[in-house]
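Lab notebook, bench 4. Still working through the backlog of constructs that have no structural model yet. Next entry is a single chain of 623 residues. Request: give me the structure tokens for it.
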Amino acid sequence: MNLPTINELSKEIANLISAGEVVERPSSVVKELVENAIDANASIIKVELINSGIKKINVLDNGFGMTKDQIPVAIKPHATSKIKTSKDLFNIATLGFRGEALPSIQSVSKMRISSCTDGVNGYFYQYKSSDLVDEGVTSMPIGTKVEVENLFFNTPARLKHLSTESVELSHITTLINRIALANPTIQFILINNNKLIYQTDGSGDIISLMGQTYGLDVAKSLIKFENKNDLYHIKGYTTTNNVYRSNKNYINIIINNRIIRNLNILFAVTDAYKSIIPVGKYPITILEIECDPSLIDVNVHPTKLEIRFTDELILREMITSTIGKALYHTELVYEAKEKDIKKEIPVIDENPYVTVIKEDEPEIIKEESIETLWDEFDEGNVFPDLEDAEDNFDDDEEYDDDENDEDDDNAFELEIETKVEVQKVEFQESIFDTLTYIGQYHKTYLLFDGGAELYLIDQHAAMERCMYEKIRKSFEKESNQSYELLVPIKLEFSVSEIPLINEKEHELNKLGIKFEPFGGTTIIVREIPLWIPKNLEIEFINDIINHLINNQNVSKSVMYESLAKKLSCKKSIKANTSILDSEVNELLNNLKQCQMPYTCPHGRPTLVKISTYEIEKIFKRVI
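Model written out:
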């Protein structure tokens, strides 16, 4: 048998392999070249594209440039001016440092580098793949210009799998937007096929940049946050509950002016919005983190997007708490605009809880014409005792499917236990104290005169918020007691899961769940904690066990959160239910006492305001 021979790869092949990690698409090239320009102290960076960068990419900057002798050294693998010793790797203050970008780009394209350090004696080198094809003097201002043509010309498989020009341009535009947010004092210019796509002024105004990037409505809804400890200084802007998106791509995480990806930090941002915006929706946020470079490790991946933090748990707690406090100290009343108000009320006949009301027959219900229809609620006793609420918790009770978010709110999520400490804010009282009750519309919405605004309160969402906060407070006082079941619960699992469950016995015991093997793939649960509600024992225990054996943390706080949402939804007044004036006053008073009165536990608005101006626009009184 012939043994395979071990050979050292040529420089060309090694560069192609490296390029596979660094250069994925045209936006990868733009990222590396723009970061080099930032490291060169450029104040103006211009990116010119032909066919969204697939045919050509030019990046021109006014940084300090390179001499004739430095250019050919810069394109050698692992050649860099940013680190000199191994210690420098643990104290990186620049965006680039690996010395892989230029040789990687050069190996899969036709590249020309022109640079000048004095505004007179410029020089250029031109390469095709790794071969030098031309060089000479050139006239140019101080700075560097890198031209990349025919990207992936020698790797047809990679070229074939590029997306359409519009998709590639979208990636580049998003990249430049984010880099501009991280470096607001630098002027960025993006041009495609001689058409200006994006331009910043380098003034350093973040709010203006956010408005330019995401729109005026986003800029108007931004709230500022800032905090610091011995390790980290965080600051930034985030949107209120009036503006959100359906994906996480609008959460920008920046550390020491570097755009990064970090799921744990992203979760820290979204955790602050629990019960403030709907499930599956995400804020628009720019989070800036400043710290000593020695506290982070950026040498994780060639793209330098992933970072490891020192004491990441502390950082995450600070982010969640800081953004949470900013939100809880902001008036989050949803303001409806003319474009949000439908001209015609839709006829809804498939929902048994909604009464069909024609446009010319608005329904205003006053106290003298109604009869209380609240399930299990007496007049003057809008909020039953929690013991009764739990005892009467019945999974078969009928309620509006649209108001049931059990599918959206998983019983347990992988998250950190971060309690946001909030104080009562005076503006909350002023809003509710100025409201005058008008009547009930559609047996669902409560109308209030607020002076310059008309307020609508969703009676189910408002009561759900009140019940949720009351239940959550009761859980905080809950002990760790458990009780033995009169009839043990028998649960079946797979052969592969049983050893994992046995391994997690200690963690389950800490939660108050005690079990024993029953042979084969069956276990018997004999003891469970008091906080698991009646009729949901099997569901909760299954969820807990499944999350534990999948190496996820199951905190009591997360379980309490899920349970409080379920109970509050079950025990709140439904749509199409009449309500007395006295009960309205009770509901309004309880809502006023809530820490977050503006949204239900699922993040939907509890109250909406419509300004007189918007109403007059509808009636064409103003233009």
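Notes after review: The chain has a mean pLDDT of 80. The domain at 11-198 is CATH 3.30.565.10 (Heat Shock Protein 90). Flag for follow-up if needed.
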